[in-house]
UniProtKB/TrEMBL annotation:
Lineage: Bacteria, Bacillati, Bacillota, Clostridia, Lachnospirales
Family, similarity comment: Belongs to the glycosyl hydrolase 3 family.
Main EC class the enzyme belongs to: hydrolase
EC nos: 3.2.1.52
Glycoside hydrolase family 3 N-terminal domain mapped to chain residues: 102-432
Keyword terms: Glycosidase, Hydrolase, Membrane, Transmembrane, Transmembrane helix
GO molecular function, one term: beta-N-acetylhexosaminidase activity
Bias kind Low complexity: ranges: 61-72
Annotated protein name in UniProt: beta-N-acetylhexosaminidase
Entry-linked InterPro entries: GH (IPR017853), Glyco_hydro_3_AS (IPR019800), Glyco_hydro_3_N (IPR001764), Glyco_hydro_3_N_sf (IPR036962), NagZ_Beta-hexosaminidase (IPR050226)
Amino acid sequence: MKHKLLWIICGAEVLLIIILYICLVLHSQRKQAAGTLSRSATTEAFSEKASLPETGEETEPLLTETESLTETVSQAPETETERDSLSDTDRRVEEILSGMSLEEKAAQLFIVQPEAITGADAVTAAGEATQNAIFRYPVAGFIYMEPNLQEEGQVKDMIRQVQAWSMERTGLPMFISVDEEGGTVTRISGKNFDVPYIGDMADLGSRGDPEEARETGRVMGAYLRDLGFNLDFAPVADVLDNPDNQVVRRRSFGSDPRLVARMSLAFLEGLESQGVYGTLKHFPGHGSTSGDTHAGYASNNKTLEELKNCDLIPFREGILQDVDFIMVGHISLPAVTGDDTPASLSPLVISRILREDLGHEGIVITDAMNMGAIAQNYSASQAAVMALEAGVDLILMPSDFHSAYEGVLEAVRQGRLTEQRIDESLRRILKVKLSLSDDGNSDR
């Protein structure tokens, strides 16, 4: 009886072991199957996001705003959704940015006289010195003054060669710029060139005909483009609100802000119909000042509300028409900013009023930084960094280019300026340059 009971107990234990074994096998098979499904789903999802094109060519990912564009880190290519969200121009801009050194980026923030980087006097040709200078300092552009411009053939040859050097160095055209307003301020009309004479905008404004302004801009744009220019620092959009103002008295279309807006925008439309970019200047308005920023301090004592009802109207109307360039003057606005900081160096004026309040998304360029209002109060380095901190994109004619350029580089290295801030400006600059390249305006 004892032996029979023992056999029953042993049989039950063996049966229990068999049952447990079967359960373990079934559980293991289910777990393995679930794991296979999970790995398959993960692989498919990763493939959708990060697989390379069937051609085998690697795609270069776009970097986020918070990542340095010079970091060489391993990243997955952008998703299809991210690619679709960018236009062809935006993609090209990001590709160019990702291949630029910090030094190249800093150089692209300046428009200078050719003498500033060549060390020559009164440059009238683009030879080896110009080539070497452009290759070392690939600046955004040149501005030519009357001594640089002797006659038609010389100007065309010089600009054509400059653009050739620029395309070889950067793959992009330079901004070839000039102050050609008509009348009081001209470098070409009325000089040694066989082009139509264009008088002061005050005379044009007195007749109040936007069609005449448009045709005047078209005529000017035609001869500028023919010579090789692609950027004109005109028209003056200042409202002559102070009859004693001698700075823009003959350069302004008049004292009625809405007339000034209509005439300025019509002139700009004519100019740009010929492939030459224009520039509304001098934000926030030089027509109410009594001083001259060429010589030194000049201020406008209006409140912001008063400015909005007069001086800012032409600029606001231009922004509604998506103007590409606005030049900021060195005028101080003590009733707005609370101090004598020039508008060109003021974050409140540029980032808050011009960018945020008025909505300007195009390029902001300073007036010439070698003018008295800046050069007498700030070093070239200090002024360049302050302008970029304020929201400026392009710095025009610093009093000392090399000092200003090194100052920007040092500000980035020390963390005062971020590379992302530099890239914000470069995106605006590169978009316009790509449009010039696409239009063939660099082939001069």
